[in-house]
Amino acid sequence: MRTFLKFILIIIALNPIQKIMAQTDKSQMPAVLNHIAVYVTELKIATDFYESVFNLPQIPEPFHDGRHTWFSLGSAGHLHLIQGAKTKEIHDKNEHLCFSVPSIEAFISKLKSKNIGFESWAGTQGEFTLRVDGVKQIYFKDPDGHWLEVNDDK
C-alpha cells in the first residue's frame, strides 16, 4: 500500500512538468518566416543589385537551374530571386521589403554613389521620412520596380 501511495504522489508531482512540456510542444510554436520570393525579369541584374546595394551574402541554391539566386537574411530567413517575370509591373509602395541599416545617412550616400534615387513615404525625391518614433526611412525601387524600404530602426 505504501508503494502504491508513493507511486500516486510521484504521478501527482510530475503533473506540472507534463503541463510545461505540453506548452513547449512544437505543434504549438508560432510559424517563422522561411523565405521571401521575388519574381524578376533579369536574374543577373537583380542579383547584382541586391548583392551590391544590401551586401547580402549568397547561399547555395539547391535547384542549380540558372533561374534562382538565394541570399541569406540572417535569422529572418532567405531572399529568393526567381527569373521568369515577363514584364516589369507597377507595384504599390504599400507592398515592400524593408531592410534596417545602422546608419541611414551612410546608406543614402551609397545609393547616391550608385545613382539610385530614393524618396520619402510622401514621394518627395531625395528626402527621408521621420516617423513619430524617431526612425528615419527611405523608399526606392529595385530594377523590376519592387518597392524597398530602408530604415535606421534602432
TrEMBL record:
<dbReference type="Pfam" id="PF00903">
    <property type="entry name" value="Glyoxalase"/>
</dbReference>
<dbReference type="InterPro" id="IPR004360">
    <property type="entry name" value="Glyas_Fos-R_dOase_dom"/>
</dbReference>
<dbReference type="InterPro" id="IPR037523">
    <property type="entry name" value="VOC_core"/>
</dbReference>
<dbReference type="InterPro" id="IPR029068">
    <property type="entry name" value="Glyas_Bleomycin-R_OHBP_Dase"/>
</dbReference>
<feature type="domain" description="VOC">
    <location>
        <begin position="32"/>
        <end position="153"/>
    </location>
</feature>
<protein>
    <submittedName>
        <fullName>VOC family protein</fullName>
    </submittedName>
</protein>
